[in-house]
Amino acid sequence: MTSVRELICIVCPQGCTLQAEHQADTWTVSGYACKRGLHYALDELDAPKRMVSTSLPVVGGEYAMVSVRPDAPIPKDMVMTAMQSLQGVSLAAPVKRGQVVIENWLQMGVNLIATRTVYKAR
Question: Largest Cα–Cα distance in the chain?
Answer without folding.
Answer: 66
